[in-house]
Amino acid sequence: MRDRSLDPGAKNEFHRRETSLRITVTWAVALVKYMKTLNVAPLGKLLLAGILIGWTFGFAAPAQAAPKKVLVVTVTKGFRHSSIPTAERVLAELAKESGAFTVDYARVEPNDPEFKGADGKRDNAKVDAAIKAVLAEKMSAAALKKYDAVIFANTTGDLPLPDNQAFLDWIKSGKGFVGMHSATDTFPGFPGYTEMIGGHFKTHAAQLEVQPINQDPQCPICAHFGKDWKVFDEIYQIKDFDPAKVHGLLTLDRKPDVRDPSPGIYPIAWCKEYGKGRVFYTSLGHREDVWDPAWPDRKNPKEVAEAYQKHILAGIRWALGLEKMNAKPQKAAVE
Ligand SMILES: [Zn+2]
User: Fold this and answer.
1) Ordered structural domains, the chain, with CATH
2) What is the Å distance from ligand 1's center to 284 Cα?
């Protein structure tokens, strides 16, 4: 994860700077030649040169793009993954290391002392009220305007958004949506969300090692996986999924179930256009050691987590419009 030398975004940025520097130098040389031909007093020449050079540099200097703003949502109304604090931390680290975006959170940790009732036990009414309040604050139509993308990192259940349709319309207007793992186990009662993300959680068998088929080895989200990449995780089986409506990234051709590995289509990661917006989903990310190369108690080598971080960072960058790639479905719709 520390090696950014192969990052195509960084390479493009370098190329942009180099080009604009060349333009600036060319301008400066032309300017000096031009000044020599002018019949103006030396002080006047100096002033004019100052103004022109200032304008030239202002025009040609590379615009340092401000980091994009991302809202990370980790609230849960169903099962709560123990990997959520790890996911929150890793996303903050990726934001900082890449410099591409900053993170804000819509988070409620149900075990925080503030949610204890008089009997010392968790007061679920207090937790629910806090979830409602944080989503009302950060995900209203007005609040969403300040973000460029939203990440659902292991959210579950029917979340009390202030305005479901406003959320979808916000993505369609040209924003980004990224979902990890149980993002597809979110909003069972909101078909518009399932249509947006591209599928819904059906079930999962016991955790197992899988070797996903890399459907787009050229794209930045998958380029680093190579042919033999394997991961040990809880692998979802997805329903309400249509391969003709997404750009497939990782998939399996057998059911991810050691007791019944029967042939079929079992998608793992995909991306898609949604109106003018961009949606990236990966079902990986149940386990802490998939998110974090430094997690102590592990079944995955640290390289698996490093590859996962590259996978999600490229997905986030693409969703933010910072990365170009083909997101059209590989498979034509069968009418
Ligand atoms: Zn899980």
Assistant:
1) 4-60 (no CATH), 68-319 (3.40.50.880)
2) 9
